[in-house]
Request: fold
Amino acid sequence: MPLAEWGALSDIGNLIGIWIAGLLTLAVLSYVLGDNPIYRLAQHLFVGVAAGYAAALAWNHVLSPRLTRLVQDPAEAWPVALFVLLGLLLLARGLRPLAALAGIPLGVLVGTGAALALGGILTGTLVPQLAASFVSLAPAAYGGGVMGWATALDAAFLLFCLLAVLAAFQYHRADHGPLRLWHRGVQALGRFGRLVMMVAFGAILAGAALTFFAILQSRLAFLVYDWLGSFVELGL
Amino acid sequence: MIACKECGHENPEALRQCEFCGASLTPDRYRECPACGALNEPDRAACARCQTPLPPPPPTDAASEPAGDQPRTPDEPPDGTPIEEDPLTGLEGLLPPADVPDPMSAQDRAAFHLPSDDEREDATLLHRIATERAPLSPMRREGASTTRERMPGGIRRLLYLLVLLAALMPLITGRQSQPWESPRPQTLQLAQAMADIAAGGQVLVAFDYTPGYGGELDPLAERVLVDLARRDVALVAISTRPEGVGVAWQVLGRAATFVPDYQYGTNYIILGYLPGAERGLRMATQDLATILPHDDVRQMSWEELPAMQGIRTVDDFDAILLLTDDGNSARRWLEQVDTQVDTPTYALATARIEPLLIPYRQSGQLAALVGGAYGALEYPLEEPPQRNDLHSTDSHLALWGIFVLAAILANVVPWRMHRN
Amino acid sequence: MRRAVPVAVACLTGLVVLLGFFGADGILGGWPNLLVEGAAFLAALALLMGAAHLALAHGRRALHGEAEAGHSVVLVIAMLATFGIGVVLPGSAELAWIFDYLYTPLQATMTALLAFFIVSAAYRAFRLRHAEAIVLLITSLFMLLGQLAVSERISPVIPALRDWTLAIPVTAGVRGILLGTALGTLAATLRILIGMDRPQALE
Reply:
């Protein structure tokens, strides 16, 4: 069950758990000093637990309920039979005479994934993000006055920065021909776009530092309060 | 994996240089075009990008070998490659160079501007900081970023020690800065939105984060969930990652213990794992009961769970609370779910990915966005659940000091000390 | 023929699902949802197969006594034990114990290591080699200060400037990257759906 009492030792299982977790935490932290066999052991243990946990959840929530439904009521659950058949074809990937058939379930996976990604990115990212960028630049639309002007200027600057960032992805440079001036302009805009991107990356770097630091603190808190705390509670 | 010819170190296939010793890996697998620098498949006669004839391939010794001996989970990417969910991952496979027509004249090719080494290095480093999930072996990645310059060992040890001391600071200072803290408007806005959900309402809680990021997100998630539970809002947890279900057990299970008479089955449910990324989310908008027919804790069907009454799809909830440590997973929720339903989405994200979601908040697709690192300190809640933790503004200030010191040292320490 | 079948299947299922996405379920009956559910089922099965493959690879390594064979034994035992308990005792205290005391500390501490390594990364990124590095340094130091819960008490200008930075340049920078990625994905998925492309998965 979930940790009912954070840090309190409700039973011997939790006590053993806290000790093991404490030792594993130290084993992984030892990597700061350099690679070592204990860290490698912890790493392998983690991969094993993670893969086993994911596989168990996939079985419990996806495969098992459908197979049960198929066994109980095959007539009603006929699509499941179809899924199982496709699944068997997927398993046949390693068998040479049947390997070609494994392309069918893979085709279903790729086709559905591509279709949903296409629909999603169009309706969920491209259209709304473009719509949010091309907004009115008239101060009157924001109530006029100083605030209206400030908001309109912000909207204009946002659009300018966005165009600059898009220009930064343009690596093609023409030093000749009728479009020379245009390309030079795009290039200059792109240089500004790189600076805008650096501002975004700066924000991401700051956020990442805060995130990883918070996680380090939570591990140290576990070591100090729970792991060492368990020694105190046992009177050691 | 590609084994380095110089040192034998096994590198992820995406790398062009050995992450350990910096030797070039390209001849083993791809050939670099002499004109434009594009990487080409070994069997090509001309560059796929600019059609310049390629020199004959060097004799190879079948240096690549299949993955499998490198321990990793099936859903975890190999070290050094962009994360699996990155939409650009595998694009080289989706858009094979053979199909790209030659759009450039010889003059254009000469004028083609390639990013400098410095630009590439910065882009790689920042892309990793921005998008990678927690790796299995972080040191290797750091090694990958120090192929040309190295941080002097003494400075590294000093900075690491300071980070450790800063993290432990509340033990020393006892949270001196707490009275100075003031919540920012977006945190208060989230609290107000949660307060506006009527008693008896139902909220879908997406635990889309791994226990790796629990240190940051758990405290904030717990506060918000306790707040909702105290006002008798039913909470239904799901996750698009298997490990998110375990996180739901930890966080929702613990939050429920702080609210008297808040019962599993009646008031809160851990429904389980939605498989197949976009596909599972799509099904959740169509027919949630079909994709997740029973709960995770008691294996009971929906009819036996009072908290699921009146729910058929995501649209039937009053709100979606998205707890996430991954920009791509959050994007999928917005693209597959938010476009299909009227239910507002509130995101609690790690500070690391918060900037990546800001455009969605600005466009109104996210009704609120709060970062975990500061949100837990700022979210207003009477009698908050007690936690033994070290999160405090004192430590954050110390961390800021360390970054200032790093910035000074990086530019004061003589250049030659950074060379390998 | 062998190559054409998966591409044809991908095109066909993709088009049906796409029509379903844009609300044409009426014409297509329940087929779009059925295909999506089937694909989710296959994705879960693929996850199981991946785990099995991992267990086999490490089992082989352990049996042949290759380097780190002992580690492989630990991996296989941990995986089988977790899977076995998860399947036989779903939703049990035993499974929660594994998650709370093995999974969580291991993964959380691996992520915590990055707190040290990001300082190294910042040190490298802060070397003022060009204009971009100066902007990066100033922004990240300012944003780190601005994110503090006490920033308003230090100066009311800090949160105001932080919010403006997030609202304008950060939004523009990230949106530019998002739009670029979205366009790339759009092109790639369209090519799959009209059969112009054979993704590597279908090879």
